[in-house]
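Here is my example:
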Amino acid sequence: MIDFERFTLANGLKVIVHRDTSTPMACVNILYDVGARDEDSERTGFAHLFEHLMFGGSINIPDYDNALQIAGGENNAFTTNDITNYYLTLPAVNLEVAFWLESDRMLSLAFSEKSLEVQRNVVIEEFKQSYLNQPYGDIWLEIPKLAYKVHPYLWPTIGKNIDHIKYAVMDDVKAFFKKFYCPNNAILCVTGNVTVEQVKTLCEKWFVPIPMGNPPKRNLPVEPPQTQARKLELERDVPASAIYKVYHMGKRVDKSFYAMELLADILTDGNASRLYVELVKNQKLFSEINAFTYESLDPGIFIITGKLLDGVTLEQADEAIQKEMEKITSAEVKKDELEKAKNKTESQHIFAEISILNKAMNLAIFELLGGAENANKEIEKFFSVSEKDMLDESSNIFKESNCSTLYYRSKPKAHAN
């Protein structure tokens, strides 16, 4: 259970405070309600580019990292299709340094051509290393396009292609900042050895003077139900062929999410999991196999992926996975399987709450999802999933007509003379 207090500033900034006196540290997390799904389809990758630009210095603080390090802190950030999240930890006695740093870049980020050029090159290099020059990397460019046709989840956070970032101009960057980086499009969460009164005082000093913005109302195209199986085959110079089967499922707050999270554990978590036992140990088709969900704010996807052993065809591997999924959709999972998955989830949740950083992130994300108090109801929602719920959700989701399959074929090895 995470105890917290919440208030909203006059400029619309939502603030959440959780006090933890067991640590001398504090964490400041700022979540901006903007991700890759909010981008123009011809200017993708901007949310991720902005994550980098935010560390390029503000008007009054040219070196964000150095100022934070002097105060004994460290920081990082991440971008998803749904959100952009910045976080830092530092000794609680230096909490005001965090408010000074974060408020200044929210109010007056330094827009310099030099910073834009540097960060643009960093992102382009990341695109090349992670997606183009990395074995299996381009899979995560191809899968979204295969699974989605109209919703902006059809492009990854990094963007559709390098050119969208390569040719980004200052006017585009400033417009993106003005549109989304404002107090009434953000959630500030402070955890650690702090008090509500202390946080309110610092908010009055550093954040209240920032004017309210005018973030656009989100009106994204709704992905229509998939009614026909899709398939894509690619051949690449990789060590082993791989298969990816992608199914549409509900969004993060839907009941189906909790069932599918538990099912992913039942299928591939550990050496006693269903797909590992049957397809890796018994049939010896795969060297590894995994199942996981995308925790998307809009309806997401469930993915099963495996790397094939030599001599196994993609068609054999595909047929074997489908047979296992037929078992899931034709009979309830065993009671002990479901209990094991629930207990593991509960354990992970409890351990996560030890960290003030995890608590700060979770409270901010759940506030965005509808209320920070729901962070304390997660275990209850997982434990409420029944064997029948699992069967009902699986039968609805694991239809071949709802599946997009990627055959990622390894190029034949050249034989030496």
About this structure: The chain has a mean pLDDT of 95. The domain at 5-206 is CATH 3.30.830.10 (Cytochrome Bc1 Complex; Chain A, domain 1).
